[in-house]
Design brief:
about 45% strand, about 70 residues, single chain
């Protein structure tokens, strides 16, 4: 959770509203965070820091077809 955020990597963002998102980080600064949707449905969004409860680096995403039980 304390990995340095790097543009181009995936992040999980928890919003102050309680909603959680997984997005590609485009950039961040002291006032805002710009994110790109993983799929084309939602596109790009820029959030003010006050809208974000937490943001963390995602180490990896495993598709369901790759999970062996």
């Amino acid at each position: 959770p304390h990995h340095r955020l790097v543009p181009g990597e995936y992040v999980v963002v928890k919003l102050a509203s309680g909603e959680s998102l997984i997005k590609e980080l485009l950039y961040e600064n002291a006032e805002e965070v710009s994110l790109m949707s993983i799929n084309d449905t939602f596109g790009r969004t820029t959030l003010h820091r006050s809208e974000i409860s937490s943001i963390h680096y995602v180490g990896g995403i495993v598709p369901p077809s790759q999970i062996k039980t």
